[in-house]
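Complex 277.
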Amino acid sequence: MKRIVTVQDISCVGKCSLTVALPIISAMGVETAIIPTAVLSTHTMFQNFTCRDLTEEIVPICNHWEKEGIGFDAVYTGYLGSKEQIAIVADLFDRFKTKENVIVMDPAMADNGKMYPAFDASFAKEMGTLCRHADMVLPNITEASFMTGMEYRETYDEAYVKEMLCRLAGLGCKIAILTGVGFREGMTGVMGYDKEKDEFFYYEHEKLPVSYHGTGDIYASTFVGALMNNKTWKEAIKIAADYTSECIRVTMNDKDGRWYGVNFEEAIPQLLSALGK
Ligand code: PXL
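Predicted structure with PXL bound:
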């Protein structure tokens, strides 16, 4: 069985970060080790959330694993809480990198043109430096604009997206993948760029008329799970996009749907059938 480690916070209520990565990647048949970077009562879109920082635990956990000879087929990071954590994660990437494994970074920190409440533009620049230590990065357009210094645009053409992907690759990753890329009314999609092959790939699908929190984390978790099921990065883009859309669709159709996250649990059967399980 493949084993990955994911490094992000636990928002105890919120259906994001570890509370989606752990169930989704496990359901995909992959052992999912975790490093919780902080414990929050909820994600940061709630008011008055509590937060206990766990930065001090990260290095001792890694030291123990190294002594035990524990390695991973993928290292996957999501939401990180501080510049200090970014520096520690850069080191962790280098420690756990092998010839065979894959380092995937989702710089979860912004959406719809704005940084999340805890962050500013200098944090985003710091996150950009992590790309050098990662094989694949999975930002949305807002996150990529902050990391690359490109202007954020609501409407854009293919040239804008391709330049953004090239600039992301210029930060040092091998494959850059931009989520939430739509060129036509009613459609959205994901575009990736393989620097070594100088090759772009675009997967377009229907854009549902609602948006929910935590879908970027669901996308990245599913992408990693698909890679661990021996899918190529292009296949993983498609599987993750279809599952994320399905999660949004079932939530939209649930009159009791929660405002803070999607019903990803209900769509797991469709995800497993997309994997041929
Ligand atoms: O979904 C990204 C995310 C993860 N973790 C925490 C968050 C957010 C988004 O706001 O607040 C704590």
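The CA atoms of residues 228 and 247 lie 21 Å apart.
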